[in-house]
Amino acid sequence: MTRYTQGTASASERAMVEHWYESEAAGKKLADDHVFEHLDAEIWAGTLQKAGIARPVVHRRLFTAYRAAAAAAILLLISGALVFYLKDQKAVPVPPAAIAQQDIQPGGNKAVLTLSNGASISLTDAAEGELAKQGDSRISKTKEGQLMYEPGGGPAGAEAGKRNTISTPRGGQYRVDLPDGTRVWLNAASALTFPPSFAGLNDRSVTLSGEAYFEVAKDAGKPFKVISNGHTVEVLGTHFNVNAYNDEPDVKTTLLKGAVKVNGSLLKPGQQSVLHEGKISIRNAETEMETAWKNGEFIFNGQDFKTVMRMVSRWYDVDVVYEYDPAPFRIGGEVSRGRSITEVLKMLEVTGGVKFKIEDRKIKVIR
Q1: What would you give as a GO molecular function for this chain, any one (predicted)?
Q2: Beta-bridge mates of residue 334
């Protein structure tokens, strides 16, 4: 900050300070706090004033980690992190990028349902209405584009041993309502396997690969279980998120409501379990960040660059190629998942330490 106000900061450092300033000003009046009031005058007196840019005063919700204290933003700036804000379709201007004149649109509702007999149904192309029947269960696609299971009144256990799988590709997401009324949102590159009916079964067990958000229907006599990568979540009725991608080092369960046990460890709302190399640890969670994907957003709070790029890869269905290995740095901020990939990459380039080039469906990280 001192280098900025003295005019000795590099171009990339000036850009980072000004992007942070514009984002903070958009979220609240800086003069509301004596710390921000001082920064307001100093930053605006820099290149923003010289460029004829007025002090922003638009009120908007901003990522809580940055609104909480100026210190957090300054620490992110010093460590080389990126702060950006693109939620409300008003992009902050960025320096020219090395991105090719191509673009890739974000993902959408795409999935395939595989029945227990091996038949596959593309939910992306299927029309609204009944898709299939399995035993006494009716499977249909709603007018909102969701998959719904409606159990009939047939004999208990008639579907025992049968399993259906709904899977999303990279660049896809989908919601399914299970036979017990549980709602599940699947993120990109994920799969959920479950029985077409829970009648006659001792529990409600499903298997997950990838990431999903669950709103579990209550049934005190029949616990709901999510099994993934040596990790079992047991619940009766609750809201939680499970991140169990094979290319991530940890399996994370984040609890928003109710109570769950993860491999025997009890979680309370606002907590997260992390399974790493076979060991479970419990910590407080940034629940808004962990479930942002379900609400159509990316929210970053210090994730490392390569973790962020894996998220980008899954949502935009692209491969990331590193033509060199950039020095580690962390990302902070918020951006709509409805943005095109070019807009997202341009914001990442603001760090000054990394650039991108798009070739077909490959994102190349270049110098």
Answers
A1: sigma factor antagonist activity
A2: 85, 299
- How is residue 155 written in tokens? 């004999």
What's the pLDDT tens digit per position in 303-353?
A: 899 999 999 999 999 999 999 888 888 888 888 999 999 999 988 887 656
> 315: which 2 tokens?
């949502």
Cα 85 to Cα 48: distance, rounded to the nearest angstrom: 18
User: How many angstroms separate the most distant Cα atoms in the chain?
Assistant: 79
Residue 125 CB contacts under 8 Å (≥ 6 apart), including other chains: none
Tell me which CATH code domain 108-290 carries: 2.60.120.1440
First and final C-alpha spacing in the chain: 26
Pairing mode, strands 112-114 and 120-122 = antiparallel
> What span, in angstroms and rounded, lies between the C-alpha atoms of 21 and 47?
12
- As assigned by CATH, the class of the 1-100+296-367 domain is alpha beta
Asked whether 213 and 165 are in contact (CB, 8 A), the reply is no
φ, ψ of residue 330 to 5 degrees: the values are -120, 155
Domain locations in the chain as residue ranges: 1-100+296-367, 108-290
